[in-house]
Amino acid sequence: MKFCLCCISILSLLITGLEASASQGKAIYTKSCLPCHISAKGMASSKSAKNWKALLLFEEGPSNALGRIHLDANGAQTSWDYFKGDTYKADSRHLKDFLQKYSSDRGKHNSCF
Fold this sequence. Notes:
Oligomer: single chain
Distance between the termini: 49 Å
Largest sheet: none
Order of helices and strands: HHHHHH
Structural class: mainly alpha
Strand content: under 5%
């Protein structure tokens, strides 16, 4: 089966767009998480990569543990629309990449906020 150069370029763009990105995760964290977690700027380093993976595993979106924690917390009512919506579902993989990259056991510190 032969593919033209145009098809290969489009396919590679689609695949790249599906990959998780720590830099996108940082932007999402800054926009969506810091308003409520302002005192936890080092939140990513509060857990190990394995712990973050467990919180954001299984399914993207409100079904994962991080989504459920927020949806079950009465003090997090301002975030419920975000966690119930499609935006969080799309953001989950980027947040996981960001939180794991800057986790306590990865030796990287995210002091760029």
